[in-house]
Structures are given as structure tokens and as C-alpha cells.
Design goal:
cytoplasm; cytoskeleton; Nucleotidyltransferase, domain 5; 2 strands; extended; ATPase_NBD; Actin; 5 helices
């Protein structure tokens, strides 16, 4: 729970940054792969794809200013209505520390488990002597 009594779940989807190596007229072809190899009957089809790209894609004029603004204001909030009529609000906050959530979670877990007996932990010595297979065996994972 957070300080206001709301239940909070931290979700790390495992992704960092997504880069796209396409630009110009190649971009619509990769966004709409079903169009690749099909004859374009009308030029309006291609124009439609380009319009979609231009409406849905955004390129900042001042990237640094946009990054500062995003770090300060990245909060998504939306209200949903369940089939029975009840309404609830989902609020998603993306603080700058989100980049370190996996490490922080591991650090908290390690701190909680620090007093467990030695057969719970895999030491550097264990790894150097037996490699990954020894570590997996010690943790009870069959390889």
C-alpha cells in the first residue's frame, strides 16, 4: 500500500527502450506488413497509411525538454466501468526510479532472506567450482 492507503503493484515488463531502424517511406511498410507485396490500387491507400503514421507517431522538436517533462508528469489515470455497473479508477505512475525496480526488489528480497541457512544461497565459490549446473542443483532445479 502507498501512503494514501491505495493498493499498489509494481510491474516491470522487462523492456527498456525500443528502437526502430526504419524511416521515411519504409516505416509504413513495416507498420503495416500486410500491405507489403500487395499491389497498391490507389495512391490513397498509401496516403492513408502515411496519415495514420503522422497522427499516431510523435517526434519531439526539443527532445531534452520532452524527457524532463515526461519524468515530471508521467501519470496515467483512467476510469473503467465493470459489467455490473461498478466503477473503478486505475492510476499508473512511472517514476524515474522505475528503471531500478528489479534491482530494488532483489535487494529487498536478499535483505529479507539474509538469515536463511547456507544451502539457500549460492556463493561465488560454488559458482566458480561447479558453474551454473552446480548452482541449479543447489537450488533444486533439474537441468
Amino acid at each position: 500500500m502507498d501512503s494514501q492507503g491505495r493498493k499498489v503493484i509494481v510491474v516491470d515488463n522487462g523492456t527498456g527502450f525500443v528502437k526502430c531502424g526504419y524511416a521515411g517511406t519504409n516505416f509504413p511498410a513495416h507498420i503495416f506488413p500486410s500491405m507489403v507485396g500487395r499491389p497498391i490500387v490507389r495512391s490513397t491507400q498509401r496516403v492513408g497509411n502515411i496519415e495514420i503514421k503522422e497522427k499516431l507517431c510523435y517526434v519531439a522538436y526539443d527532445v531534452e525538454q520532452e524527457q524532463r517533462l515526461a519524468l515530471e508528469t508521467t501519470v496515467l489515470s483512467q476510469q473503467f466501468t465493470l459489467p455490473d455497473g461498478r466503477k473503478f479508477k486505475i492510476r499508473i505512475e512511472a517514476p524515474p526510479s522505475r528503471k531500478h525496480m528489479v534491482f530494488l526488489g532483489g535487494a529487498v528480497l536478499a535483505n529479507l532472506m539474509k538469515d536463511r541457512d547456507d544451502d539457500f544461497w549460492v556463493s561465488k565459490k560454488d559458482y566458480e567450482e561447479g558453474g551454473i549446473s552446480r548452482c541449479m542443483a543447489k537450488l533444486g532445479i533439474k537441468t
